[in-house]
Amino acid sequence: xxxxxxxxxxxxxxxxxxxxxxxxxxxxxxxxxxxxxxxxxxxxxxxxxxxxxxxxxxxxxxxxxxxxxxxxxxxxxxxxxxxxxxxxxxxxxxxxxxxxxxxxxxxxxxxxxxxxxxxxxxxxxxxxxxxxxxxxxxxxxxxxxxxxxxxxxxxxxxxxxxxxxxxxxxxxxxxxxxxxxxxxxxxxxxxxxxxxxxxxxxxxxxxxxxxxxxxxxxxxxxxxxxxxxxxxxxxxxxxxxxxxxxxxxxxxxxxxxxxxxxxxxxxxxxxxxxxxx
Length: 277
Fold this sequence. Notes:
The chain is α/β, with parallel strands linked by helices. The protein contains seven helices and 14 strands. A hairpin with a 2-residue loop joins strand 13 (260-267) and strand 14 (270-276). The mean pLDDT is 90.
C-alpha cells in the first residue's frame, strides 16, 4: 500500500544559509526528505507523523532575517526509484572511484560503489559528497576505525571500508537513511560497517581514528566537541556541508578544541575540510 506524504513547498529568501538552516530544523521536526530547488526546498513528512502544529518549533520561520513562504499539500508516495532513475548518471571521482546505480554497466575502476539512494542524501552528485569521496581516496584508511556521522546512503563509509578501514559506524537520524544505508552496505558486500539510527548522543565513550561528518554548519558546530572527544590521538576529522564563508567559523571552533586545520577542498562554494588532533 502506498504511503501518503505531506509535501511542504518553501520559498526562501535569502536562499542561503536560509535553506540550510531550514532543512536542519525540519529534520529534527520529523521531516524525512528534502528536494532543494532554485527558490527554496520541498520537504516531505509522512501523514501519520504529521500534525497541524508541526512547524511551531521551526525557529527560522519567525526570524526577521529571512522571508519564507510556505504551502503544503497531501500527495501519494511516488515511485522514488523511478524518479531518480530518470536523471541519475553515474559519478566518477578522480579516475579511481565510480558511484553508480544497479542498472548502470560495470566498470574497471579501482573502487565501484553501487548505490540505490531512494530518498536519501549521498549519491555523489552533491558537491560535499563528491569532495568527501576525494578526501577518502587521497588519505590512508588502512586498518582505521571510522565514524560516518550523518551517513545518508553510507557511500562514504562504504568507500572507507573498500579503502581498508576495519571497523566502521555509520549513523543517521533519518529512519529512511538508516534503512537505505543498511541496504547499500549489504549491496556492496561490506562486512565491517555497523549502521545505527540516532544522533551524536550515541557517541559517548567511543573512539575512532577517523571521524567523517557531512551534515550542515549548525549541527557541526553544535556537535563538534562530541566529535573531538571521539577522536583517538593522531586522529583525523573530515567536515563538510557548509560554505566557503563559513570556513573561518568552523576552523575557529576546531582550534578551540585542539584540532589543527590541515587543508580543504572547494567545489561551487561548498567546502570539505580536514583537521587532525
